[in-house]
Amino acid sequence: QVQLVESGGGLVKPGGSLRLSCEVSGFTFSDYYMTWVRQAPGKGLEWVACISGRGGNIHYADSVKGRFTISRDNANNSLFLQMNTLRAEDTAVYYCARDGQWLIYWGQGTLVTVSS
Amino acid sequence: DIQMTQSPSSLSASVGDRVTISCRASQTITFYLNWYQQKPGKAPKLLIYSASTLQSGVPSRFSGSGSGTDFTLTISSLQPEDFATYYCQQSYSAPYTFGQGTKVEI
């Protein structure tokens, strides 16, 4: 069955960097867009970024553009989110999800806390 | 970017009630509108995509309607397991923004 497992979250200081990973199984990874969505504590969902199956089409939310980079390794069924120049407002649970336009499968999320 | 506005932000209802949640887009999104349900501590679950198509396995008491800028999620007879937060999302133009959520409470 389809599985998505995020990792890489943790505590980081403002201005620091973190790289999230999402390992997937149960489907042909390169056939699908992949998306990152985040949720700050007690807040709503925020769409972050998506990447096409071959990696040639990428979109970002304005709030992370220039600081975050989405990428993928189709040989190893993995999705990544490189987060630089982190701010307190980036504190959230980060979910990876399959597909671009509607998100059927989601991971369990990984918590990123940005605090000094 | 397209802004999505849900109303109400929260509502109180009882088991068996008919519940309606509205979602409005800041510009036309034709039928590219999705609805998700989220329970505390869990990942969101897709309920409806393309405004009115029920995702496989979702109970038929959930339905979606609308096009253009105005959309509605309806729960025909609220069940205990439906108490949750509901989000709309546009998938017409990236970034694929979410609404702020509607919490359905007892």
Helix/strand layout:
The complex is a heterodimer of chains A (116) and B (106).
Chain A: E1 3-7, E2 10-12, E3 18-25, E4 34-39, E5 45-51, E6 58-60, E7 68-73, E8 78-83, E9 92-98, E10 110-114
Parallel strand pairs in A: 2-10
Antiparallel strand pairs in A: 1-3, 3-8, 4-5, 4-9, 5-6, 7-8, 9-10
Chain B: E1 4-7, E2 10-12, E3 19-25, E4 33-38, E5 45-49, E6 53-54, E7 62-67, E8 70-75, E9 85-90, E10 102-105
Keyphrases for this structure?
heterodimer; A: 116 residues; mainly beta; six-stranded mixed sheet; B: 106 residues; 0% helix; globular
Question: What general form of chain B does the structure show?
Answer: globular
Instruction: Pick out the low-confidence regions of chain B.
Output: none
The helix/strand class of chain B is mainly beta
Mean pLDDT of chain A: 97
Listing every helix as H and every strand as E from the N terminus to the C terminus, the arrangement of chain B reads: EEEEEEEEEE
User: Between the first and last Cα atoms of chain B, what is the distance in angstroms?
Assistant: 34 Å
H/E order of the elements of chain A? EEEEEEEEEE
The Rg value of chain A, from CA coordinates, equals 13 Å
Q: What's the Cα radius of gyration of chain B?
A: 13 Å
What would you call the shape of chain A?
A: globular
Approximately how much helix is present in the residues of chain A? under 10%
Biggest interface = A-B, 21 and 24 residues
- Quaternary structure type: heterodimer
State the helical fraction of chain B.
under 10%
Residue stretches of chain A low in confidence (pLDDT < 50, at least 5 long) are none
Strand order, biggest sheet of chain A? Answer: 2-10-9-4-5-6
**Spatial strand arrangement across the major sheet of chain B:** 2-10-9-4-5-6
Protein structure class of chain A: mainly beta
How much of the sequence of chain B is in beta strands?
A: over 45%
